[in-house]
Amino acid sequence: MGNRAVITASTAPDAPSIYLHWNGGRDSVEGFLKAARDLSIKGTSAESFDRFAHVLARHFFGCEVGHNVYRQDYGSADADNWDNGTYVIDANFKIIDRLFKRHGEQYGHKSADIAADITARAPIFND
After folding, report:
1. How far apart are CA 54 and CA 79, in angstroms?
2. Given a cut of 70, is residue 127 above it in pLDDT?
3. Residue of higher predicted confidence among 5 and 126
4. Mean pLDDT, rounded, of the chain
5. How many other C-beta atoms can be found within 10 angstroms of the C-beta atom of residue 126?
6. Phi, psi of 70 (to 5 degrees)
7. Which tens digits make up the pLDDT trace of 49-87?
8. Which distant-in-sequence residues (6+ apart) come within 8 Å of 107 by Cβ?
9. How far is CA 47 from the centre of its chain?
10. Cα distances (Å, whole numbers) of residue 121 to 11, 22, 25, 39, 116
11. Rounded to whole angstroms, how far apart are CA atoms 29 and 77?
């Protein structure tokens, strides 16, 4: 049981993705993506997703990647998870599609608070 979601830029089996066991609702994911943008994390590479997963694990969940936040290829992710499904994002970390969403949107407008909480504690990545 959880509030699961997958975030990916592509549904290709080898595409980088992040599996969230908790906080996979639209509010949280929008906040996570905004924090990534604010921290200059962007792109569709494995490195971008590694950075994103690290920031989420460390600065939101207070853990390491592999506990609540998992970095894996899309083909291995639980994309059809019966909770929030899959968020497909573009290189600017904006949601462009949803897959396997079976329930109404859980959107309580806490995204800005989530993003502010993460960016207050996380390093900025400048390439």
Report:
1. 20
2. no
3. 5
4. 92
5. 6
6. -125, 135
7. 999 999 999 999 999 999 999 999 999 999 999 999 999
8. 25, 26, 27, 30
9. 14
10. 31, 20, 22, 11, 9
11. 16
Place of tokens 């079976």: 102
By the 8 A CB rule, do 32 and 51 touch? no
Bridge partners, 20 (sequence order): 5, 69
What the block records as the tokens of 89 is: 């994002």
Q: Which helix (H) or strand (E) holds 19?
A: strand 16-20
Across the range 20-45, mean pLDDT stands at 95
> In Å, how far from its chain's centre is CA 54?
11
Nearest C-alpha neighbor of 79 from the set 24, 121, 1: 24
